[in-house]
Design brief:
By secondary structure, the protein is an alpha+beta fold. It is built from 7 helices and 12 strands. A 5-stranded antiparallel beta sheet has the order 1-2-3-4-5. A 3-stranded antiparallel beta sheet has the order 6-7-8, covered by helices on one side. It has a two-stranded antiparallel ribbon with strand order 9-10.
Length: about 260
């Protein structure tokens, strides 16, 4: 019973309208999609009429257009579609964004390897991910003037960042930020834990072996008598502390004097 009470005390209250689930070594936060009044207008005035016109025009041209050769008509149709591909993409995006604003869901998934944002409208998801690094944090974004929805949370991983939570209220955003930073702090404590070995105490590895490792974990430090130590060991840190630089050859160096 005491363990259950402790676990309940450590688990923050999740406001209604969103879900926070803690997986093995990761976190999943799901909330509603943010509606934007500009996309329904764009879809009604441009997206749907454009796609209908393209569909009807393509059927007519391929069936009864000129030249008479079906192969020549097909090649010309492909060229016309290629020249207007940006307009097709904008029309499809306006329809997708309209559906996303009404019934869509937004999901933030954090695993040991990367941070992924997925926005799903029906069965059509759009995902964006960044890799996890050794410097990670989540911060609430300030309110913006106006009525347009905007992301409320920014999750940074070194120099990369993703933003999400445009449909969250302040209480939901605070709960999401607390859960994300709690995960990052736990991973940071695990990352800085020391493991004992024959070559000295080393920092525990929290990333898979096939990824590019941190320089501080794999580099070497050369002592004054020519021997090398791994940069992640306690002995190497002591060597770097008392290491001296070679004399300068510049005009202010010892040899210049």
């Amino acid at each position: 019973m005491s363990r259950e009470r402790d676990a309940a005390a450590l688990t923050p209250t999740v406001p209604a309208g969103m879900s926070i689930s803690r997986e093995a070594g990761g976190l999943i936060i799901e909330g509603p999609g943010a509606p934007n009044r500009a996309w329904p207008v764009t879809a009604a005035l441009f997206g749907v009429p454009w796609l209908l016109a393209v569909l009807i025009g393509s059927v007519w041209y391929l069936g009864w257009g000129v030249p008479d050769s079906i192969v020549a008509r097909l090649l010309l149709w492909v060229v016309m579609m290629a020249f207007t591909v940006a307009l097709h993409a904008l029309a499809l995006l306006s329809i997708w964004s309209t559906v996303y604003g009404r019934v869509g869901r937004e999901t933030l998934a954090i695993d040991p390897e990367r941070i992924t944002i997925t926005r799903r409208a029906g069965r059509f998801p759009i995902s964006l991910h960044i890799r996890r690094t050794i410097i990670e944090r989540a911060e609430p974004l300030p309110e913006r003037p106006g009525h347009a929805p905007h992301p409320r949370i920014e999750v940074r991983s070194w120099r990369s960042a993703v933003r999400f939570g445009a449909a969250l209220d302040p209480a939901q955003a605070d709960a999401a930020v607390s859960a994300i930073n709690e995960l990052f702090e736990r991973d940071e404590a695990t990352r800085h834990a020391l493991t004992h070995g024959s070559s000295g105490d080393t920092i525990a590895r929290t990333r898979s072996e096939d990824r590019v490792s941190d320089v501080a974990m794999t580099g070497t430090s050369r002592t004054g008598h020519g021997s090398s130590k791994r940069a992640g060991t306690v002995k190497a840190r002591g060597v770097r502390r008392f290491r001296t630089s070679p004399p300068s050859f510049g005009p202010n160096g010892k040899r210049a004097k």
